[in-house]
Amino acid sequence: MPAPEIKFYNSLTKSLEPFEPIAPPSVAMYNCGPTVYDYAHIGNFKSFLFADVLRRFLELAGYDVRQVMNLTDVGHMTDDAVADGGGQDKMAAAGERLAEAKKSGKLPQGVDLDPNDPYAIARFYGDAFIEDAKQLGIKVASEPDHLPRATDHVDNMQVIIKTLIEKGHAYVASDGAVYFSVQSFPSYGRLSGNTLDELRGGAGGRVSESNQAVKRHPADFLLWKPDESHLMKWDSPWGTGYPGWHIECSAMAKAVLKQDIIDIHTGGEDNIFPHHECEIAQSCGATGEDSFARFWMHGRHLMVEGQKMSKSKGNFYTVRQVIEGGFTGRAVDPAVLRLELIKAHYRSNMNFTAKGIEDSASAVKKVRVFAKEVAYDPAQASWHGVEHEALTEFIAALSDDLNTAKALGVMFAYLNEPAEDVVVSHAMLAAFDQVFAVINSAEAASAGGEADMVQNKIDAMNRARQDKDWATSDAVRAELEAEGYEVKQTKAGIVATKKLA
RNA sequence: GGCCGUGUGCCCGAGUGGACUAAGGGAGCGGAUUGCAAAUCCGCGAUUCGUCGGUUCGAAUCCGACCACGGCCUCCA
Fold this sequence. Notes:
This protein has helices spanning 42-60, 90-103, 118-135, 154-166, 196-203, 209-213, 247-257, 272-287, 319-323, 334-342, 354-373, 389-399, 404-416, 422-436, 448-466, 470-482, and strands spanning 7-10, 15-18, 26-31, 64-69, 170-172, 178-180, 221-226, 241-243, 262-268, 293-299, 303-304, 307-308, 351-352, 485-490, 493-498. The protein is an alpha/beta fold and 501 residues long. The protein folds into 3 domains: 21-299, HUPs (Rossmann fold); 303-436, Orthogonal Bundle (Isoleucyl-tRNA Synthetase, Domain 1); 448-498, no CATH class. The two termini are 37 Å apart.
């Protein structure tokens, strides 16, 4: 397929740049993934879905994408007032929550885990994340080799730390901890637009005096912390302890993608500083290269009903809560949630609303109705080799810094045209769904008891209708609708389908 | 305070100097259809793009000021 010029907004240069991989058609992409000491929420998934859409689009454009998304299973600290190793380990906090849940019988069915075992906790939430991600159609969730866990790469982190010390980019301070020296890396601050002077000013009051005292510069950040008492600890040349929270991504990107410079690195906007700034310093400091990722792409944060998401406001939703109806009061098809989280441009502050969910449900339905009309079979269809003006426009829209909203418009405009050659329609749907992934092959089967309930009500309606007892028929129909079903009369009889949202 | 960014119909959201008589979706309204509905199909809807100026033959699109809103600045996707 003749790929148009692809342009992405690069956070590093704050400008739109033509995208050229280092070794086409291969693209090496690293996405900052979830921390696995709690369920990931819809804001997290906005970021992960952004990465998934990016990967899917690049594949549509003919690239061979190697995508890596890490699972952070080392517990970081809860207390930001002492950023370099204070407060409570988040994994330990998760253990306490789980122990509480276990005691009160609130653990999910069939789950029995030891709240004192951090690895079991990480496994539990890691599995939950993968399950959620698969439901939302995130491709990498089905590629276990591309979901590295930080605890499996502690040795790789130590290799980098050792190199950084040798090259003068890191030092062991008087408290025994290893810090990265930001002054040894002149371009520190380039990504975030910070300068060392500003960071020095901003450090006052937020970082504990005792920690600051041992560092050469207030912005120096932790690479290794010797701490025998820590919940998760590993032996190292600098004492038994744990790694700093930026080093894992530098280590895993290099280890799994097997190259020093990668093509794309993504994350949420909050990752820009300090996380990604520190990653660049570590990776480039160790490799000697002048870049770590050629493109840095960051998604904006998600708002919920016009407000910033936060636990204190109580507007903090996990994927499973939304799907099970905890947000709208009615079960939501995962494809609807997916579309809702990708329909706006990734660099806009999208507002997550109940109204938006309803809109997306109608949109998903529209696509599925069209697919059904042309007897689309995802297992048979392929976009490869198809040529159509709408496909060209579709790719052009996404080539423009991943403009999903415009691409969605192109898709619906095509769907409004009368379907010409069915083979072409199938190929077009395959192309659209390669990116949006909302069609799904199988319709979700209702649970056993529910299917019986539905059939009973349909039978009751039919009996009433035979007697022209419209009042009874309407009453039963209202019951079905109250259960979240859409009831329609067709030539073949009454059909009840579960609403998408 | 520093640095980013946003403001388009009832809602979401494209459009970044002339095919804009402003895409597409949702909601609404009118019609077809229906026992009534639902679903589906057809049709309608911004003389206007936060405000005020400026540049230009021409601006939602460029520039300036102002207003409003959001984000980041060592917990956070």
